[in-house]
Amino acid sequence: MNYDQIFDAAIDRLHAEGRYRVFIDILRNKGAYPNARCFHGHNGPKPITVWCSNDYLTMGQHPKVIEAMEEALHNVGAGSGGTRNIGGNTHYHVELEHELSDLHGKQGALLFTSGYVSNDATLSTLARILPGCIIFSDELNHASMIAGIRNSGCEKRVFRHNDVEHLEELLAAEDPDAPKLIAFESVYSMDGDVAPIHAICDLADKYNALTYLDEVHAVGMYGKRGGGISERDEAADRLTIIEGTLGKAFGVMGGYIAADQRIIDVIRSYAPGFIFTTSLSPVLVAGALASVKHLKQSSEERDGQQAAAAMLKQLFAEAGLPVMDTTTHIVPLMVGDPVKAKRISDMLLAEYGVYVQPINFPTVPRGTERLRFTPGPSHDEAMMRDLTSALVEIWDRLELRKAA
User: Fold this and answer.
1) Residues 319, 391 contacting (CB under 8 angstroms)
2) pLDDT surpassing 80 at residue 404
3) Among candidates 213, 201, 342, 253, which has minimal Cα distance to 65?
4) Is 64 assigned a catalytic role?
5) Would you say the C-alpha torsion 231, 218, 251, 98 has a positive or negative sign?
6) Do 250 and 298 touch, CB atoms closer than 8 A?
7) β-pairing, 134-138 with 180-185?
8) Which residues contact 123 (CB under 8 A, 6 or more apart)?
9) Do 226 and 297 contact (CB within 8 A), yes or no?
10) How does pLDDT run across 318-373, given as a tens digit for each residue?
11) Is residue 189 very low, low, confident or very high in pLDDT (cuts 50, 70, 90)?
12) Is residue 136 scored above 80 in pLDDT?
């Protein structure tokens, strides 16, 4: 068995398909985001503008967040000391879970090391606890949700994206007494569309199913206090479990779930992904705590981000660029070819100092490769016009198809 040959062949396949991933070496400039320094492909740092970060509201640069992290570092040190049942249950963790449960109007919350882990651990554990559980999953659910469902070993049914009629067909076909769980997202981050939460909850009520909503691309971003689409649409009380992240709009790191205390206790007690891993550093938790508290009180960042997204969509559309129509803060530009998407990304970085990564399979279906822009409150109009001009020039140079 030639192991090296197998590994080389696996990487060669990615190169041949044009979807080999290259990680760009950058450093953000504290207090000056979206300005950053790039060390990729040249000697010394080159100034660039970041257009694809999920730090949607620039909270990773907010003075309150940085101050809270610095204070925690000097107060308790760097690490958590291990798993929470042994040495990692700092008061910062307790406080943040209280703030998150309050944010979503739930009895309790539970922190994980990432949004991926919170999805995987919760879905796999919940389905194992419920004998004969069937999970109904939106076809565009995130890889972490798919992993959790697969790891549960339970039966699954995949419904067409945001298709409530198809979901009901699948629900109606099952044993009425079988435990059921409907898993879906609020904002789908690659297409920028939103789930019909109330309609799905209506079906959950009708067929006695639990609901699991992934709000990772919406928490902090929507609702009066940043509780997500479920808060904005006044649906949070109808959902069994709300899952979110601390690494996107809140600007730090970590994942969590919010639910009634009974479910929180079950996941806390049975999920290997929670029990057997070192808990988040109190430094990170302190920063996330400051961010959550701030965004509960302030809409300035959300308003600025929404205005920036609307402006960039308008500029792209007016320039004839193939911007996908979305109702959210996500601004995807359709390319439809992995090699071309990578080439556009490389040209933007090398020639214009613009950093945006191509989005290829398996993140999106083949033939729908795109560039995904996430303008924030710190991207000004001049930056957007410069970006639009650069894209138009590249589109013309490469003779790419414009919008109809």
Assistant:
1) yes
2) no
3) 253
4) no
5) positive
6) no
7) parallel
8) 135, 145, 148, 149, 151, 152, 181, 183, 212
9) no
10) 999 999 999 999 999 999 999 999 999 999 999 999 999 999 888 888 999 999 99
11) confident
12) yes
Tokens representing 231 are 């808060």
Relative orientation angle of helices 300-318 and 381-397, to the nearest 10 degrees: 30
**Contact present, 254 and 246 (Cβ < 8 Å):** yes
Query: φ and ψ at 340, to 5 degrees?
Result: -65, -40
Q: Residue holding tokens 């449960």? A: 101
User: What single-letter amino acid sits at 301?
Assistant: E
- Is 90 exceeded by the pLDDT of residue 19? no
Instruction: Give the SS3 label for residue 358.
Output: strand
Q: What is the DSSP string of 351-385?
A: HH-EE--EE-TTTS-TT--EEEE---TT--HHHHH
In whole angstroms, give the CA distance from residue 371 to residue 358: 5
**Are 354 and 26 within 8 A, CB to CB?**
no
Catalytic residue among 248, 293, 340, 402: 248
Range in 36-45, 304-313, 391-400 the model is least confident about: 36-45
Question: What six digits make up the tokens of 161?
Answer: 């994206």
